[in-house]
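Narrative summary of target 7.
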Amino acid sequence: MDPFTTEWALKIQGMLKKWGTTEMELRFKAYTDVFHKNRIKEKIERLQVSLEDW
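Modeled conformation, tokenized:
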């Protein structure tokens, strides 16, 4: 498994939705954090662009 890529984070997120337990969520926390960090960065970039346009 490639470490900490968005592709794997999405696959693991889908797996956790289907078979997730608290222990599994803790085990794969680094992968799901990668997914959420990328989302947050995208939101920040969109907000910065909208502020520049405003």
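The radius of gyration is 14 Å.
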